[in-house]
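Residues pack. Consider this:
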Amino acid sequence: MSLWYEIIVNGSEDALRGFVAGCEAALAGKEVVVFGHDLGLEASPISQRLQELFAAGSHHVVCAPAKLAREIADALRARGKEAGLDLESIREVVRARLPFFAEAFSRDIAEKIRQKLLASPSTGVEGEHIEESEARDPGARGAELYTPQHAYVFRVAGSFVGPLPGIIEMRRRARDLPFVRVKAVELETRPADVSGRP
């Protein structure tokens, strides 16, 4: 898997999206970025001050593979100010984490969750602290959602960890399954080299 970078930019999200689209076009669309906002990304714990800035809405995260990250960073340094954009930092994404939870009342749905999520994670992705349980109550009635007691209950919770592209794929799979809820993607990052370039 290729290296990915987290790029933190101060400015308008619309301006940033347009700026990044230009950088993607320069590489003929061979590489694409992921915006933190689209991923429901949890801000990196760089500092309390930066987290407060994220809350204010003026800072945005763009995640990109190395070549495109370099293109974006160079373009922001050269022309970002003209678009009202300031490059704050670039950090290498070491790995990503996706916390999830599911509660299903049907064996068929539980099996789909097991097959599509638990049994075959994306390349390089592993389950972390996954706890799975099943309960059967023959005296309860059916699998109806609003029944006070269910004849069958399947629960699973934990996290997937691994390279960002694999976590993005796991998030997509989880969102396509009924009764599976995902939390914000968390990134573990480290500083890029001393020049600030990916």
Summary: Residues 13-26 form the longest helix (14 residues).
